[in-house]
Design goal:
seven-stranded mixed β-sheet; 7 strands; 7 helices; alpha/beta; about 220 residues; Rossmann fold; globular
C-alpha cells in the first residue's frame, strides 16, 4: 500500500468545528477564524526549567499516547523515528503512557527526555508550545498543539482525517502535515479505536514509513 503525506485541502472535508458552527449559524454565531484556545494553569511554564541542557535550544515534541491502541504507533516505531531524527525529543503522555515512554527512551537513548506521567496537562501544553515541531497521533494533545499554531505532523491509524478531526488551523493550514496509509480497504475500521487491530496486521500504522515521517518533521525545521 502506498503510504505518505497528504496536505490539508480546504473544503474537501469540513472540519468538525465548522460543522458545529454551521449548526448555530442561524443564531448569529460566527467563526472568528482564530482557531482553538487553550490556557495552561498559572505557573505551568516553569516546566521548561526542567528541560535538560541538551533540549534548551530546541526540541521536537512527540505525543506518544491515544485513547485506543489502534490510534497509536508501536513503541518500536517511535524509537526508530527518534533515532532517524537525531535531535532532542520530548515524549509527552499521561501515566498510562509511562511504560511506552520508557520503551522509546531505552531504544533512542540520549535524544530523549521522557515526560510521560510527569507533567500536568498544562505543563504538557507549555512543552508543546515551546517545541519546534509536534509529532502526534489523533488525540487531544494534537488539538492543544493546534491552539498554539504549531507545525504538526499527525499520524493516522484506524481513524481518518475525513471524519473532520484533523488539526484545526484556519489560515495556517500549511502548518499541518497528515501521514496515513491511503486506500487501505479495512480503514477506517471504526471512528474511535480498538485495543488491537481487528485484522491482526495493523497495516494502517505499520505501513507508514518512518523515513517519510522524519522527512515531514524536518520540512518544518
Amino acid at each position: 500500500m502506498a503510504a505518505g503525506e497528504s496536505a490539508y485541502q480546504p473544503h474537501a472535508h469540513l472540519h468538525i468545528v465548522d460543522r458545529y458552527l454551521e449548526t448555530v449559524a442561524s443564531l448569529g454565531v460566527k467563526n472568528d477564524q482564530r482557531g482553538l484556545d487553550f490556557y495552561p494553569e498559572p505557573g505551568a511554564e516553569k516546566v521548561l526549567d526542567r528541560l535538560p541542557a541538551s533540549h534548551q535550544s530546541g526540541f521536537v515534541a512527540i505525543a506518544i499516547g491515544a485513547q485506543h491502541t489502534t490510534k497509536m504507533m508501536p513503541s518500536e516505531k517511535i524509537g526508530r523515528i527518534v533515532k532517524l531524527l537525531k535531535m532532542p525529543v520530548v515524549l509527552l503522555g499521561g501515566k498510562e503512557d509511562k511504560v511506552r515512554g520508557k520503551q522509546v527512551e531505552m531504544a533512542a537513548g540520549a535524544f530523549v527526555w521522557n515526560a510521560c506521567g510527569l507533567t500536568s496537562l498544562g505543563e504538557s501544553a507549555e512543552l508543546l508550545k515551546a517545541a519546534k515541531v509536534v509529532l502526534t497521533h489523533d488525540t487531544g494533545l494534537m488539538h492543544i498543539a493546534s491552539s498554539f499554531k504549531k507545525p504538526i505532523v499527525s499520524v493516522w491509524g484506524n481513524t481518518v482525517p475525513a471524519f473532520g478531526m484533523y488539526p484545526y488551523l484556519p489560515g495556517h493550514e500549511n502548518l499541518s502535515k497528515i501521514m496515513e496509509v491511503k486506500d487501505l480497504k479495512c480503514r477506517p475500521c471504526t471512528k474511535i479505536g480498538f485495543d488491537k487491530c481487528p485484522k491482526g496486521h495493523f497495516q494502517c500504522m505499520r505501513g507508514i514509513e518512518e523515513e517519510r515521517i522524519v522527512e515531514a518533521i524536518k520540512s518544518f525545521l
